[in-house]
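User: I'm writing a short methods note and want a consistent example. For RidA family protein, I'll paste the sequence; you return only the structure tokens, no commentary, since I'll be parsing the reply automatically.
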Amino acid sequence: MSRSVASAADTGSASDRLQALGLALPELRENPYYVHHRSVDSSIYISGQLPYQDGWLLGQGIVGRNVELETAREFARHAALNCLAAAVQAVGDLERVRIVQMLVFVASTPDFGEQSQVANAASELLIEVLGENGRHARTAIGVAGLPVNSPVEIQMVCTAV
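Assistant:
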């Protein structure tokens, strides 16, 4: 983690930090087949989120074939932002969200091997916004394909603080 990420996470509220990054939590569209989150006690299970922005998937393809690493990292940031939106739906306030675990799925070629670099972009965003509450356990997995040919999908487990 860079020094700037750590120092930025020490100032202001999570909402202020999100706004300072030029970001806002998106509205998540209803889905008739699943919910964006399910709470059990203080744990919040976030459904896999794709890099949608304003109702549109930001891109499609396979990382290492027709999606570049930096593009995949940006998609991971958007998917993490959607996860944060689902967590806020569950607890009502960004200040109450603590990330416990993040699973990052990267549709990639078998020889890509940099799934963790894609996941780092999402981890950095969470720490920039939530500070210590954004630090988490994490798994990054390369997969053959994802829904609607998305290059990235992120699932999270959070807790209310």
